[in-house]
Amino acid sequence: xxxxxxxxxxxxxxxxxxxxxxxxxxxxxxxxxxxxxxxxxxxxxxxxxxxxxxxxxxxxxxxxxxxxxxxxxxxxxxxxxxxxxxxxxxxxxxxxxxxxxxxxxxxxxxxxxxxxxxxxxxxxxxxxxxxxxxxxxxxxxxxxxxxxxxxxxxxxxxxxxxxxxxxxxxxxxxxxxxxxxxxxxxxxxxxxxxxxxxxxxxxxxxxxxxxxxxxxxxxxxxxxxxxxxxxxxxxxxxxxxxxxxxxxxxxxxxxxxxxxxxxxxxxxxxxxxxxxxxxxxxxxxxxxxxxx
Length: 292
Hints:
2 domains, alpha/beta, globular, nine-stranded mixed β-sheet, 9 strands
């Protein structure tokens, strides 16, 4: 597999889109322009089967897209953005007012308890924007969302509303659906593009469902796409601790034609775990693997 630098195969000129809707572990918002620059200049439909915070999708803003995830509260957020942005904004404003008018931490904990008793998109939307470090983490045993309240106040509903309107505009050609990634990949047809950003095996065990995620099964699904002439781009673990640790992965020989290194700066997860300590040795690099 050939490793190439940005200047060697970058093809697109991409305008950064920096205003994220959600905060999420592994958020690609800052690096999305570089990732998108490696996408084919021409493709039919766009698929993103691990939608997360949607940084790449929002930056690309494709005319025709299908975005999915297996986490129902997350998809509820995206479907509501698509179908009723005003309702999404109301969800956020209602919870923001609760925290602003009362004890911020106490009200946050009430919202977190509400989510954990009955997981839903309305609570998750506010929690992911106001939790500590933007690191939404789930307990392995039962999926309990455990992140405490952040030290900074969440953005004002007016600012959030402007973001929601912009995201709704950029994603008006996208269909969102609750679906397993394997089923979503099976839908892709020749000439379509799939971008995969799955849980990272080395760092993201705190994500919902990450404990049961199988990277070899994803590789099998990608191989099936490649046989059907579907373009696939995959973001996955690269190096940690400023290059001192290279994450070994069972990448099938011959599956990917190119590998690109994407510098992601200092680790969001390490920032949360180390509580503000020196992160100079915690620079992370991702692999971007391409079947084309």
